[in-house]
Amino acid sequence: MISIITGKINSHKTTKMIDHFENFQQGDGFVSLKFMKDHRVDHYEMMKLSTKERKVLMTHKDSLKENMILHTHIGPYVINQETIAWVENEISQMIKQNVSPIYLDEIGKLELSHEGFHHILVNMIHSELDLILVVRDSMLHDVLEHYQMKDVHIL
Predict the structure, then answer these.
(1) CATH assignment of the domain containing 113
(2) Taking the model in full, what pTM does it have?
């Protein structure tokens, strides 16, 4: 079954996902944590739920580090390819080990453009394992249609 946590920007979707993982203590996956600086989002980090390990996913162009391998960008944010690869590798291992549910925060514009976590999301859906995803409410219809998700449970 695919379950989706949805809501508007800053509606605590990530917090709900973390709470769900902590309450049920099953599965594994990743959440995206937001960090502010000077009244703007400075960067996002992906955190593996089971280990709390974190890696920078997106950084505002004004805060870029020299050693960051760039993947793509969305607005003023540059995406770290190493973190994308880390998440994809870890989730691939979860699929092989039948970890369930697998959590992934957040599916949106990048994935609809076949970037970001698109490839691993396709593998997750084909695995037929239970999934818990975060999708912004304004993107929900497009994501459901694009990935042909049926019988989705909205949390």
Answers:
(1) 3.40.50.300
(2) 0.91
